[in-house]
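User: Is it possible to get a 3D structure for a protein together with its bound compound? The compound here is S-adenosylmethionine. I've pasted both below.
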Amino acid sequence: MSAGAPALLAVAKRRGDRGRMDAARPEAISPTAHYTGYVWARNGLSDPQLATAKGRLLYEALRPAMLLSGALGGPTLESYLLARHRALDVLLERAISEAGVTQVLELACGLSPRGWRFARRYGSRLTYIEADLPAMAALKRRTLKRMGSLGAHHFVADVDVLRAGGPGSIPGLLGRLRAEEGLAVIVEGLVGYLETEALLGMWRTLARSMSAFGAAVYLSDLQLGGGAGQSVALFRALLSVFVGGRVALHHFHDAAEAERALREAGFTEASVVPAPALISPRQARVAAGASLAHVASARVGDRRA
Ligand SMILES: C[S@@+](CC[C@H](N)C(=O)[O-])C[C@H]1O[C@@H](n2cnc3c(N)ncnc32)[C@H](O)[C@@H]1O
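Assistant: Yes, that's possible. Here is the predicted structure of the complex:
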């Protein structure tokens, strides 16, 4: 581990004592959407309009630590993010092409370009709803409107994933979709910030409301714990410092435990795999961070989605 790592770990611990990354502090999670938005754009996955000055600032602030971590053979946040983003793209493409999904709800969409990319690719064959907390949703809506992407098949909605029902909740949004058509719900970059009980509650809400659809699949990234070395601890500390609070980076020890939790929440089938298993070796090669990323897919209902 680098010489600066213990200091970073200490800062992260102090910050962890101050606050938790749960529903009470969503404003502490949102800056990370600017960071990831910038990462997607600088890697050619997005339109520059979805990259903000704030994202660039955060990226440049973290760059020296990431360069150091990469030089020491440790993980970089960027390789981790790219692996999970591409792996989720692959799972979503499969759900659409092989299993008849025609409706996508992307929760905690932030400044992710996925909705824009999929909307351009599939046109009126796909309805893509992006959703986030009101302030982030408003920024995304304004930006996509400027990019000419919004319309009857691509729109942005307000949501709080922790709200159990009513307007601005997951059930409220899903109630606006056609239950007789295939559905995918995708969420990237949020679950790692939720306390375990909040995450399990969101999964229960999702499984219950997705069961109204004949075929429905849930896709998300997931961090698994256990066996993490010092470089992983550094990576987590950096993230905590960066987002200004404790990052609950893993809820489950391994894939089997996460799959069991998804089934207990109400999904009929669940699978958790390392992100690099789904993407090309060239894409996964980038750096050690990629191997830390895992993705979950889970289904409800008997029919395939
Ligand atoms: C790390 S960013 C990820 C953004 C995007 N998915 C990406 O990968 O670039 C986390 C996002 O979660 C959103 N968020 C935080 N708490 C939320 C909540 N309770 N309900 C919905 N979205 C939430 C934030 O506003 C932010 O856009």
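Residues 5-300 form a domain with the Rossmann fold fold (CATH 3.40.50.150). The beta strands are 101-107, 127-132, 154-158, 182-187, 216-222, 269-274, 294-300.
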